[in-house]
Design brief:
Elements: H1 3-27, E1 33-34, E2 58-60, E3 64-71, E4 76-84, E5 90-97, E6 101-106, E7 110-111, E8 116-123, E9 129-139, E10 146-156, E11 159-162, E12 166-172, E13 177-185, E14 192-197, E15 206-212, H2 215-221, E16 227-235, E17 242-243, E18 246-252, E19 259-269, E20 272-277, E21 280-282, E22 287-294, E23 299-308, E24 318-323, E25 328-331, E26 335-337, E27 342-351, E28 358-360, E29 369-377, E30 380-392
Parallel strand pairs: 3-10, 12-19, 22-30
Antiparallel strand pairs: 1-5, 2-4, 4-8, 5-7, 5-9, 6-8, 9-10, 11-13, 13-16, 14-18, 15-16, 17-19, 18-19, 20-23, 21-22, 23-27, 24-29, 25-27, 26-27, 28-30, 29-30
Length: about 400
C-alpha cells in the first residue's frame, strides 16, 4: 500500500472514532432522555406511508393528561393508549422526552389494524409550582408522522404551617401565654398520630392540643387545602429567662413528611431587663456584641441592668460565674427609684490588654463567652448574659 493511502486510511479511522465518541456523548445528554423500547433502535423519524392504498391511522385517546395537584418527590405514572384505525399495520418508534421524564414501555413496535399500544410515562416532581412534560412518538401514519404526549399539573407541598412558627413573643416568667397555628393538609388522608416536644427538659411547661378546623374556615383561608388542624400551645409559668428553645413535633401518616416541626418563637422576660451602653445587646437572645478587639488595646463594655416590680427592693447583684475566667466583671451600686419601683445597676465587662487571641463570636451560644449573675429577686433569681467577641493581634 502506498504511503498516501496509509495516511488517508488512518485519518479516516480517526474521523470515524471521533464521530462515534461524539454521538455517544450526545446520547447521554442529561437534558434529553431517549426512550428505550424492545427491539433494535433505528432512526426515530419513520418514513410515513402514503394515502394511496392501505395505510395506518393513529388515534390517541388523550394526548394531554392533567395530573392535577401533585406532591414533590413522589413518582407518578400514566399510560397513553394509541390505536390503529387504519387498514395497514401502524409502526411506532421512540422520540424524545423532556428532562426528568422517561418513556418506559411500548408493548409493540407494530400495531395491527384495530389494535392498540400503550405508552407509559413516569415522572417525579421536585419543585413546587406548575409542572409540564412531554414525550414524542414517531409513526408511519401519513397524516400524523409525529404524536406528542403531554403531562401537566401543579406541584404542591403535602402540608403548610400558617404562620410557619408558633409565635409567643415576650412572656413574663410568672405568666402563662397562649398561641396557635394552622396545619393545612393538601391530601385528605392526613392524620396526626402523636405530638411530642423536642426539648424534654422543659416539656412539662408546654401544653399542646390539636383540634380539627371547621371546613368553612379552612376553605375561606385556603381553597386548595383538603383538611386542616388548629395546633394550640399554652406556655406555663416557670421557664428560664431568655429565648425559648422548644419545637413541637407532629408525627403524621405522610410517607414524605412523617415528622412536621413547628418552632416556638419567643422569649421569657422577668422583672429584669438589660441594655447595652455603647454596645449592641440583643434582649431576645441575651447576647452582648462586643465585636473584634485588638489584643494590645483591650476593651471595656458596660451594660445597665434594670430591676422593676414589687420585688425591686430585694435586688442585689452578685457574680456567680464568668467564662472565660480571665474576663474581668465588676458591678455598680444598685440605685433604687421608689417612684417608679425600679432599681438600676451597671455591669462592666473588661477584656484585659494583652489577652491571648481567641474567637468567641458564636453564632452558637456554646461558642460565646458568658457571665451569670444572681439578682436577689425571687421571680428572676439568675440572669445569664452571653458575650460575643474575638481578640486579634
Amino acid at each position: 500500500m502506498k504511503t498516501w493511502q496509509v495516511i488517508f486510511a488512518c485519518a479516516l479511522l480517526g474521523l470515524i472514532s471521533g464521530i462515534s465518541a461524539t454521538m455517544f456523548e450526545l446520547g447521554a445528554s442529561p437534558v434529553v432522555n431517549h426512550a428505550i423500547f424492545p427491539g433494535p433502535v433505528e432512526d426515530a423519524a419513520l418514513k410515513p406511508g402514503t394515502l394511496d392504498g392501505p395505510h395506518s391511522k393513529v388515534v390517541v385517546d388523550l394526548e394531554m393528561y392533567d395530573a392535577g395537584n401533585m406532591q414533590r418527590d413522589v413518582e407518578y405514572k400514566h399510560r397513553f393508549v394509541l390505536q390503529n384505525k387504519g387498514d395497514s399495520p401502524l409502526r411506532l418508534k421512540q422520540g424524545e422526552t423532556s428532562c426528568k421524564c422517561t418513556m418506559s414501555k411500548l408493548v409493540d413496535d407494530f400495531v395491527p389494524p384495530d389494535g392498540q399500544a400503550e405508552v407509559e410515562l413516569s415522572w417525579k416532581p421536585f419543585k413546587d409550582g406548575p409542572f409540564g412534560q412531554r414525550a414524542e412518538v414517531f409513526t408511519n401514519d401519513p397524516k400524523r408522522p409525529r404524536v406528542t404526549l403531554s403531562i401537566k399539573g401543579r406541584v404542591i407541598s403535602t402540608h403548610a404551617i400558617v404562620p410557619d412558627r408558633m409565635i409567643i413573643g415576650s412572656v413574663s416568667v410568672n405568666e402563662s401565654q397562649q398561641a396557635q397555628v394552622q396545619l393545612r393538609g393538601y391530601r385528605d388522608d392526613l392524620k396526626i398520630d402523636q405530638v411530642t416536644l423536642a426539648d424534654a427538659q422543659t416539656s412539662t411547661l408546654f401544653d399542646v392540643h390539636v383540634s380539627p378546623m371547621a371546613a368553612e374556615e379552612l376553605k375561606a383561608d385556603d381553597p386548595d387545602a383538603k383538611i386542616g388542624f388548629l395546633v394550640h400551645l399554652t406556655v406555663k409559668p416557670g421557664l428560664p429567662l431568655g429565648p425559648i428553645h422548644q419545637t413541637i413535633l407532629l408525627h403524621t401518616n405522610l410517607p414524605t413528611s412523617p415528622l412536621i416541626e413547628i418552632p416556638v418563637d419567643g422569649a421569657v422576660t422577668g422583672g429584669v431587663s438589660v441594655y447595652g451602653v455603647g454596645f449592641d445587646f440583643n434582649a431576645e437572645q441575651s447576647v452582648l456584641s462586643i465585636g473584634t478587639v485588638k489584643r494590645h488595646e483591650g476593651v471595656v463594655a458596660t451594660m445597665l441592668v434594670r430591676m422593676r416590680g414589687a420585688e425591686y427592693q430585694q435586688a442585689k447583684l452578685k457574680v456567680i460565674d464568668v467564662s472565660p475566667s480571665w474576663l474581668k466583671v465588676s458591678l455598680g451600686e444598685v440605685k433604687e427609684n421608689a417612684e417608679s419601683s425600679v432599681a438600676n445597676a451597671t455591669v462592666t465587662v473588661e477584656v484585659p490588654e494583652n489577652s491571648k487571641p481567641t474567637v468567641l463570636l458564636g453564632p452558637q451560644k456554646s461558642h460565646m463567652g458568658s457571665i451569670r449573675l444572681q439578682t436577689g429577686m425571687p421571680s428572676t433569681p439568675e440572669l445569664k448574659i452571653y458575650l460575643s467577641f474575638a481578640i486579634e493581634d
